[in-house]
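Exercise 7. Given the encoded structure of a 82-residue chain, write a plausible sequence.
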């Protein structure tokens, strides 16, 4: 069984509120310059994670096609054509 150690990084934001993700995290999570991230706001915190494209109807993550900036899986796409 593997466990993930929680590392704590202290960073300051710049004048525009930007934050630099430490290189060790970017390397481990393969976050390059063109990766979409989603920010989930909590009551007193936020979480940043890699955006996973999902079907807008069933949340499937495989066999997706993009339509008007939304993703639809092939099964739901077939149902739309009925």
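Solution.
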């Amino acid at each position: 069984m593997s466990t993930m150690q929680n590392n704590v990084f202290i960073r300051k934001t710049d004048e525009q509120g930007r934050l630099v993700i430490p290189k060790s995290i970017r390397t481990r999570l393969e976050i390059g310059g063109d990766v979409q991230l989603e920010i989930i706001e909590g009551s007193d915190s936020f979480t940043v994670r890699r955006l996973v494209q999902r079907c807008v109807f069933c949340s499937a993550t495989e066999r997706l096609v993009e339509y008007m900036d939304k993703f639809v899986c092939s099964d739901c796409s077939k149902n739309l054509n009925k």
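Remark. The longest helix spans residues 74-80. Students should compare their own answers with the one above.
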